[in-house]
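Proteins fold reproducibly. Look at a sample protein:
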Amino acid sequence: MAADQYQNDDERIQDKLKQKTWNEIRANDSWAIFKIMSEFVNGYETMGRIGPCVSIFGSARTKPDDKYYLLAEKIAFKISKAGYGVITGGGPGIMEAGNKGAHHGGGTSVGLNIELPFEQHYNPYIDRDKNLNFDYFFVRKVMFVKYSQGFVVMPGGFGTLDEMFEAITLIQTKKIAKFPIILVGTEFWTGLMDWVKAVMIDKFKNASPEDLNLFKIVDTEDEVVEVLDTFYKKYELSPNF
């Protein structure tokens, strides 16, 4: 990490620890509440007009010539041709590939952007009227899970894992319906899920063996669409709100 990055981190920590008066705290919190409310209202009003969608999660760092970028593009294309809209985080990498595939497939292409100091900038394949911007991760995640009827998880970093486990937790605790969670890339996901089974479930008993049925691991775009179609043959496809 560069020296200036250490300095920036140190300044941020010092600012957070700086003593503030009660009036300063109250004023800052009050304005934050209004900002949070505005993000929810704008998100609900925009997303509520969009039909059934599938969220695609994955790394912002994946390059356009990477096999998983190309695979995510194919998956999104096939998903859009199957009649689903596509929601991504709106940025580069896998997110761009998802929006690109949906765009070329003639489907709904939604981007839920987050303001970050690095990596994130919205991609050009999002429908112009479906490009939302957020300051708060938790508001953005609500939009993902409230308006998605399936989750496709490509290889990614901590943010991708956060989004994946959020979806699994909400389904496990029955806070949302049991929509498909599809992990793409056996080579990427097998080690983690082997640990979940061997350590979290079998050794420490911190989850149930049945929870392994909440997701599937696949490797191709055809398998993704097959999982979605098999699931929705049992139900009339309708918005999750």
In short: The longest strand covers residues 109-114. Residues 5 and 11 are 10 Å apart (CA to CA). The chain is about 50% helix and 10% strand.
